[in-house]
Amino acid sequence: MDLGLNGRWALVCAASKGLGAACAEALVREGCNVVITARGMAALEEKATELRLLDPAVQVLAVAGDIATPEARAAALAACPQVDILINNAGGPPPGDFRDWDRAVWLAAIDANMLTPIELIKATVDAMAARGFGRVINITSGAVKAPIDVLGLSNGARSGLTGFVAGLARQSNLAGRNVTINNLLPGAFDTERLHKTLAAGGAKAGLSSEEFAARRRAGIPAQRFGSAAEFGAICAMLCSQQAGYLTGQNILLDGGAYPGVY
């Protein structure tokens, strides 16, 4: 199926590795030009080179910087001729015990995982609406629906973003102009982030990370962790021209792990 993304421009945050990189790759395969961001320039340039090899006709621009800062956001937006697609993504805050987190730690988590996506949405959606096409995907976490005890910072900050998006996505001046805003909620995907979470969970349970990982896989009906590539493919589908009637939704990708109906 042609997703209708050829020639579009996408800004993909935290795209040097993991789920962000997979989303950028899926979009490039659909003929989408991309601006990718990450804090580390070396890894970002390496990923940009890989993406250019997928389709020489596509433009791939790399802008290094911490997207949680105003300066990095301004640089990324300036590099993108127009933002047709915005993929909000940021490394999650560290796991731990809430008793150890002071106000500064909480504010950093909220700034990176709630306020930064909102700032980027604010900077792009009106122009999307004026052009009659826009897709915003926020990569949040399956913990929004099924909180993980050691990820309290993520649980809180990402839930705040989820509540904000629920109202914004339903505004007629956006939804009525073919601008959709949806959240992708990854469960256990085989990424660096997951390995850190497994190590923390294993330490708390008195198990090695390998033992804890085996226990975690056993609790997933699919009996495995997800791959970044399949996550990227779903992201591209939600960005497609065919997805214009899907907005304000939380799409959970977790191999069936969440036991609820809603």
From TrEMBL:
Pfam families: adh_short_C2. CDD domains: BKR_like_SDR_like. PANTHER family: 3-OXOACYL-(ACYL-CARRIER-PROTEIN) REDUCTASE, NADPH-DEPENDENT REDUCTASE BACG. Belongs to the short-chain dehydrogenases/reductases (SDR) family. This is SDR family oxidoreductase. It comes from Roseateles oligotrophus.
